[in-house]
Design a protein that fits this description.
The chain is α/β, with parallel strands linked by helices. The protein has a nine-stranded mixed beta sheet. The chain has a two-stranded antiparallel ribbon with strand order 5-6. Helix 5 packs across helix 6 and helix 6 packs parallel to helix 7. The chain contains seven helices and 15 strands. Helix content is 27%, strand content 26%. It folds into two domains: 250 residues, Vaccinia Virus protein VP39 (Rossmann fold), CATH 3.40.50; 34 residues, no CATH class. It binds S-adenosylmethionine.
């Protein structure tokens, strides 16, 4: 018998020493008012199917209780991500002393060094970007990265489809026969095709979300962005995890679409905001069902 067999797992010790501060929990969602790094240390290896998040971008915004230990958080995310699991990492660079920082790309490369695939670099295009000043020598910054990182091949992929341009027309396919002659054969084309990996959203007041209170948070992810990614990489009943919960946008879109949700957030105020938004969404989902049972 070797000595280490008697030693409890280091993560169990950690968990026992520091119980997680569960802010709120229902059968649909759970929010921890905690540092995501502390939470992740309590999570088993290869157990999280889907993560969607937008971490603090360089030092662009002031959050209450800001703390972002990127490398250790990335290591924990890579360790806890399930085989076939996906991380959607929405980021952008600050411009410092005239240069973009390159932080976003460095983060994607770091995840690759940890063994994850850079499965797809998607673009979040802003239909109405903040204009750059006329005097600046740059075009308007109109997009952000949506890195899709995966452990192996993603288990779930439900792509958005659109009608193919020539889907209704039969193709004239060439086949060379055994005698070497070219034969033409009418072949049905696919009627639909996957959308491109550029997702365009109108952002800002009334667009990113219609929840007025959500703008109490300085860096909202557009709800539609979160929803599109959740629908693509998860099935109903799956769990969505956002380590940088913010105002709870991922959680709101998760429960709206029949997924369960776990979020971690340092600021108590943003936990309050998230709970309110998610509860309102769950109440709205109940409304049509209740009406079925209403009597005159
Ligand atoms: C860019 S915002 C996320 C916004 C969110 N996607 C939304 O739409 O509301 C990042 C959030 O991460 C929180 N945060 C920063 N460091 C954290 C950490 N180590 N653990 C948990 N939350 C953290 C900040 O307080 C902030 O609310």
């Amino acid at each position: 018998m070797i000595v280490s067999d008697f030693l409890p797992d280091i993560r169990t010790v950690y968990y026992l020493e520091k119980q997680m501060n569960t802010y709120y929990e229902t059968e649909h969602y759970k929010i921890y008012n905690e540092n995501c790094l502390d939470y992740l240390k309590t999570v088993d290896d290869n157990s999280i199917k889907f993560v969607i998040t937008s971490p603090p971008y360089d030092n662009l915004r002031k959050y209450q209780g800001y703390s972002f230990d990127f490398e250790n958080i990335a290591k924990e995310l890579a360790r806890t991500l399930a085989e076939g699991g996906v991380i959607i990492w929405n980021v952008a660079d600050a411009t410092v002393k005239g240069s973009e920082t390159g932080t976003s790309m460095r983060q994607a490369l770091f995840f690759m060094e940890l063994g994850l695939r850079l499965h797809d670099t998607m673009i979040y295009e802003k239909k109405n970007p903040m204009p750059a000043s006329v005097s600046s020598k740059r075009y308007h910054q109109a997009w952000e990265y949506i890195f899709c990182l995966s452990k192996g091949t993603p288990t779930t992929f439900n792509p958005f489809m659109v009608p193919a341009k020539y889907g209704h027309v039969e193709a004239n396919m060439k086949h060379r026969g055994a005698d070497g002659e070219l034969n033409y054969k009418k072949t049905k084309r696919n009627s639909h095709t996957k959308v491109r990996n550029i997702f365009t959203y109108t952002i800002g007041g009334g667009h990113s979300t219609t929840d007025k209170e959500a703008y109490g948070h300085p860096a909202l992810m557009p709800e539609k962005l979160a929803e599109d990614q959740i629908l693509t990489w998860t099935d109903p009943g799956d769990t969505v995890f956002d380590p940088f919960n913010g105002a709870g946008t991922s959680g709101k879109m998760a429960v709206k679409n029949g997924r369960t949700y776990i979020g971690t957030e340092l600021s108590k105020e943003y936990c309050d905001l998230s709970k309110h938004r998610i509860e309102n969404t769950l109440t709205d989902l109940q409304k049509p069902i209740n009406r079925l049972f209403e009597t005159e």
